[in-house]
Design goal:
The chain is an all-alpha fold. The protein is built from 5 helices and no strands.
């Protein structure tokens, strides 16, 4: 069964929190770049799941942007540029702020 927006937000809460944490640490600890890539891929796997039961225009509008952002974040991490990856995460237009808006009102958001 496909997720509702509440279920999707619940599934994303911890992986996005982990991505935030490793995104910050990788900017000062290059050894964390592989962890950063793992977390990017974990988040991507969730956002690529079936959207058919989700009726949230903000979330549905964010998903294609998020896919591009996550790819750009992974590309930056692969180049060793954790700072750029983290900048993309925080970017108000293409980053995860829009996910926070889409999940606002759901537990943990």
């Amino acid at each position: 069964m496909a997720d509702t927006i509440a279920e999707r937000c619940a599934r994303l809460r911890q992986p996005v929190t982990d991505l935030l944490g490793v995104g910050m640490t990788a900017t000062v600890e290059p050894k964390d770049l592989s962890k950063l890539v793992e977390q990017i891929r974990a988040v991507r796997a969730i956002i690529e799941d079936d959207l058919s039961a989700i009726d949230s225009p903000p979330y549905l509008a964010w998903v294609p942007v998020a896919g591009d952002t996550l790819q750009a974040m992974e590309d930056a991490a692969a180049r060793g540029d954790a700072a750029e990856s983290f900048r993309l995460f925080r970017d108000p237009e293409v980053g995860f702020n829009r996910l926070g808006i889409a999940c606002s009102g759901n537990a943990g958001w």
